[in-house]
Amino acid sequence: MIDRVELRTIHMKLVHPFETSFGRQYTRDVLLVAVHEDGVQGWGESVAGDDPFYSSETTETAWYVLKEFLIPALLEGRISGEAGSFYSESAFVRGHNMARAGLEAALWDLKGRKEGVPLYKLFGGERTHLPTGISLGIEPRVEDLLALIGKYKQEGYQRIKIKIKHGWDVDVVARIREELPDVPLMVDANCAYSIEDADHLARFDEHKLMMIEQPFSYEDITDHAKLQRRISTPVCLDESIKSVGILRAAIELGSCRIVNIKQGRVGGPTAAIRVHDLCRDHGIPVWCGGMLESGIGRLLNIHLASLENFTIPGDISASDRYWEEDIIDPPVVLEPGGRISVPQGPGIGHELKPRLIEKLTEAHEIFDRK
Ligand code: OSB
Ligand code: MG
Q: Are the C-beta atoms of residues 288 and 332 closer than 8 Å to each other?
């Protein structure tokens, strides 16, 4: 029985500002969830953003939903505490996927630690080394972006993703292609465009992009299908895919050829595996997205990305691409050949840095079983 749950917000500074079509970010408030059972702790991260700009959730809304609804249900025994049942048992909360996912993640880590098994084995993953890519933000000048691409290509990242918005799109890609005609390249619009831009976006077709990620608003499943019929570059959905139900609609309509899986966005690891399986069954390759996670969320992503249908290098980059010092020990590192290895230790598989976590903490609350 889970006898204690802790919520904690830590404040972390990015090594380099990260700009998307919805804004520029210098720091990250990370919501951590810890569960305690028989003296063992499990840790999870809720990937909600500081602001409701990527999705409607924020660290504050996730904290509220956890504190008022999910944690009481767990501590009063209305939710069993079994990681594999949490997604269905917590479905009485509608939406708030990232809040639910943070607690489910902590339950999985606890289960892995108690059973002495790394999470990827509990998830049914088999691969132990994952090819990986990097997501680069919008920069003040194209030259700055080119320099960053050069640096990270040199380090070994196998795929470059750049963020785009109106005024920073086809011309930037054309410049990159002049310098690097063959680098595996893709773009992510984070919802910045609409169907009126279809002709403009079709200009990407001549640049051999791996895909264009989430060009239109998250609810525009139909317009994404129209765009996919109009352009040859594969459309990938990120923000839109919040559940298996929406994924089924997207598949039937032909809204995408590739799916970005973020476990937090879909409601946790169990939901992520269902999305993965449905995509596999329809011949849709997936890759693992990122939300500028701390090491705790990053390790969970690595375990999930070991599943067979994660065939495209994802946004799981090394700790030092985000943070001066990560809260896990050891940090996630990029290995020769641009690969990340799947941890073999129990649960998420690395130790934590409790003193650093304490130092970065801005809010902390403990909930005990009565
Ligand atoms: O759209 O994939 C996205 C970061 C924050 C919010 C949304 C996105 C991203 C990234 C960075 O692209 C992924 C990462 O390196 O964690
Ligand atoms: Mg994205």
A: no
